[in-house]
Write a structure and sequence with these properties.
The protein has 65 residues and is an alpha+beta fold. It is 35% helix and 15% strand. The protein has helices spanning 8-13, 38-44, 52-61, and strands at residues 14-16, 22-25, 47-49. Strands 1-2-3 form a three-stranded antiparallel β-sheet.
Length: 65
């Protein structure tokens, strides 16, 4: 049986925590920051945990995570 391939785009966006959940960073923080409020930019800094309904999909795309 050949090895399963990892989806590289997903591997760059999600990290698996020690408890088995997936951590992701928020979108819309890379450019055009002038018109975004300081509060909005501050909230975009924080990481978030992936919802349990999406966890199964990410697990399939990251078979060795």
């Amino acid at each position: 049986m050949p090895k399963m391939k990892t989806r590289r785009a997903v591997a760059k966006r999600f990290k698996k925590t020690a408890s088995g959940e997936f951590k992701a960073y928020k979108n819309f923080k890379s450019h055009i920051l002038e018109h975004k409020s300081p509060k909005r930019k501050r909230q975009l800094r924080k990481a978030l945990m992936v919802h349990k309904t999406d966890k199964e999909h990410i697990q399939k795309m990251l078979p060795y995570a």
